[in-house]
Amino acid sequence: MTSHASSTASHEPRPAASASRVLVLNSGSSSVKYQLLDMRDGGRLASGLVERIGERSSRLRHTPLASGGDSRERTGPIPDHDAALKAVAEELAADGLGLDSPELAAVGHRVVHGGKHFTEPTVIDDAVLAEIERLIPVAPLHNPANLTGIRTATALRPDLPQVAVFDTAFHTTMPESAARYAIDVETADAHRVRRYGFHGTSHAYVSRATAKLLGKAPEEVNVIVLHLGNGASASAVERGRCVDTSMGLTPLEGLVMGTRSGDTDPAVIFHLARVGGMSIDEIDTLLNKKSGLVGLCGDNDMREIRRRIDEGDARAKLAFDIYIHRLKKYIGAYYAVLGHVDAVVFTAGVGENAAPVRAAALAGLDSLGLAVDAGRNAVRGDEPRLISPAGARVAVAVVPTDEELEIATQTYALVRR
Length: 417
Description:
disordered N terminus, 6-stranded mixed β-sheet, 14 strands, alpha/beta, globular, 16 helices
């Protein structure tokens, strides 16, 4: 499958020689996020979101970025993804950016789970679709929606290359010692049980952008990437290659997240089933949707948690302390895995905006060369920046992630080979 991933056979759709635009689609179970980018300069031409697909209260919000126009909204029933993408196409056409444009080179699709075989962006054909479908048991919430978006976009433009960019791909470089769980090998292989990791497009983009910030090539630096949003993950990136990451078979493993528990003794599940009388589905819902910060204090918005802490709320303070404790454990663990660290970098919604999280996560780690300059940490901005003291042994950075640009870049590079 890896050799297939990098091939573009002569019978596959090819973009026009002058085409420079890529439409990036992120199809969720009830939503479609999209951006249209011009790869000559990486500029955004349009972006938008269709949400609550299949409900009477569906909404499409479209922003024509190229013209600087105001955002437009549609409300009312959008019954399925086919109707959603047709509505997106109409909005783009209204701005002169229609899907029938010869300027469109390809559609890049975010696909959450590519298993161990898809290691690169992949031109989608029937075999690729079949493999993504076979992976549904390990990504039941994500891959079906991704497949729907792919099939609908293909029906709208069958002559255009459709490219899958996998969240798991960046993590396929992990050694077996990091990727395998210590369970019976035959059982694990029979059911595809291993650590895959997620948020890979973000970790890839941010680790490279951090190297650039340091004035070095990705192959010259070791970086710990902390992607902290409602979902959160850490990765150890050694000379441009991921060697460990916190998420596993699913996005449940690892850090404390907005609604996910992160690392938990597996016997908790047996205990809740045997003693608590809970079903597997109830436990699944508990650990994925009713745990993490929301389970600990009732809020998964870090801004609200910090506000409550400032007002003396003990439950919010405990939730924050648990969140930081787990984060600090992973920083230390990945420091040990890498042996030498050039930078620790924070990204995504919490990582980019919550200065108290950054300060607390590295507090007391001066002996490892890790420290945060209070003044630099307090500065907000949209550009990559250092927040460590001048002359620090290990750089600490904030690098805004750009998963859409990463998907578009990988897509465009593949179809232009």
